[in-house]
User: What shape does this take?
Amino acid sequence: MTFIVVIVSLVLCLIIGEKYSEKAFNSLIIKRVVNKNKIFPGENIEITMTLENNKIIPIPFLLIEEQMPKGIYKVDDIDTIKRGEFNYYSSYLNILGKERIKRKYKISCDYRGVYYIQNINISFGDIFGLTTQQKEKENFLEIVVYPKLNSIKKFNMASNSLMGENLIKRWIFEDQLYIKGIREYNLNDRLKDIHWNSSLRMNKLMVKNYDFTSNKSVVFIINTQTQKDYLIGNKKENIDKEIEFVASISEMLVKEGIPVGVWTNSDIISYYNSVKSECQLTTNLNFILEFCGRIANNPNVTIDRYINKMKKTMSRETVYIFVTSYIDSVTASTMINLNKKGIVIKLIDLSQNGELTLQGIEKIHLKWEV
Assistant: This one.
């Protein structure tokens, strides 16, 4: 008889415990909010997690497990469980009836990109400690990490004698159609700018002094194709370096009030809406940085097809800076022909040895030591 009573009591406890856990889950409101969702690498985001029990019944045991993508981590938290491509963080607590609890913590990320922090896994224990239920609460957060911004001086550039902000601007905007005079040669001048007749007459090296085109805008074309087969084996480090350089130069240009646009043959990662692969001309640096942060690491089309599509929209009032570590013969031919037709094109060469060339087009070789 006693045995039967024990069994019946145990069954009742299990039933009551299960119903209790179910009601507890349905009465629990849990949500996370962030103080910002766009950051630079290494910057912190503060997350506030709010748990609210709308019933009078307490929840004696609550295990909260948060799944975060690889690259996102909790600041000052050593209890990280790594499984596959995710990091998991757990916390234990209990919550009384009609109680609201807030917990704040910080997360960070060191690498450019778009990261999704998804649903929260919750485990409940009943009042008897006999059963545990697992549920999932929907709570989706999107984090965009901008590319790192560097001073132009930190980039190791090789191009005759070009270096520093002023000469970068000169390289982009100096218009060889407008010569306003001659001046004495200095170490930063190119040999091709020497005015030989004046040099012979004055018995010292003199160079052409060009005027600057002040009404130009700049469009960076970021090529994420790093080899012939664009679907496999693209080098993430090449792409990140291209984007980092573009963002840094864009910051400099925007400060001067120069409109900047960014084009790419990659997808633009966004959960909420479809984004085109072009950032239109703007002087809003945040727009440019967010666009650069969202650029995927793999191209969705070969660079020759992309250039062929976009060439119809190119303007003589814009300087187009082609940023790439790879170029095929078809794209090279297209770029050279566009340049001959009056479209101003410059080349940023990120290949390992600076072997990229476009006939008649000036280039800077951006070396790998930064």
